[in-house]
Amino acid sequence: MAKPYWVFSDFDGTITLDDNQVKLLDQFGEADWREKEAAILAAGGKSRQYLPVVYHNFRAKSSREIIEYLRANVRPDPFFPRFVRYCDEQDVPLEIVSDGLHIYIDDYLEREKLQNLVYYSNTVEIGPDGLVFTHPYANQDCGKCGTCKKQIISARQAQNWFVVYIGDGISDECAAEVADLVYAKGSLARYCRQHGINYVPYRTYADVLQHFAQLLTGKSGS
Length: 222
Ligand SMILES: [Mg+2]
Ligand SMILES: [Zn+2]
Prior knowledge:
- The protein has helices at about 20-30, 35-40, 45-55, 65-75, 80-90, 100-110, 150-160, 175-180, 185-195, 205-220, and strands at about 5-10, 95-100, 120-125, 130-135, 160-165, 180-185, 200.
- The chain is of the alpha/beta class and about 220 residues long.
- A seven-stranded mixed sheet has the order 4-3-2-1-5-6-7, with helices on both faces.
- α2 runs antiparallel to α3 (about 45-55) and α5 (about 80-90) packs parallel to α10 (about 205-220).
- The structure holds magnesium ion and zinc ion (ZN).
- Magnesium ion binds near residues 13 and 169.
- Magnesium ion binds near residues 13, 167, 169 and 171.
């Protein structure tokens, strides 16, 4: 029997068309946050290392300020809720794995009435000198990801699930290396091409839904 599907989706730039963190840092971060992040990435670090640095001296002082700014400046993918419904109808588990902030994921899920969706992300508190992070889904062996997506995926594969992954950026690279099927756009698509990882290109969740529905139909018919 074919393995059952388990779907994981990135949040920033994937469920929302814009990247919430980029929007927040451009608005409330220090002017040189990109340089600081690039230097840490170049030195082999990842989000565990750069998140506290780029959110130091962050100027938004409440969750409300963060949420109001993002509501006005970030476009959700209008087709994601339809994809959620489809997976639900097909009894395919779908969860969100994010290296972003729980604040705006909670707000999005509430607005879209998708509060039942499980998500894994970093947790933040707003301190006087910027955001203070905790990483409930970090992995000691990795040490580099705030949320270690690879670890979350591998755990499902060990339970014999066929893992489908949808993403767009740097935080999805390790995930794409281990997932059984990858949908990629943006820098993740470039990364997959450079590293010989097979992927299905997409622009929005309308494309993902169309392709995935064909896959499910094909499998059940064979
Ligand atoms: Mg992303
Ligand atoms: Zn990791």
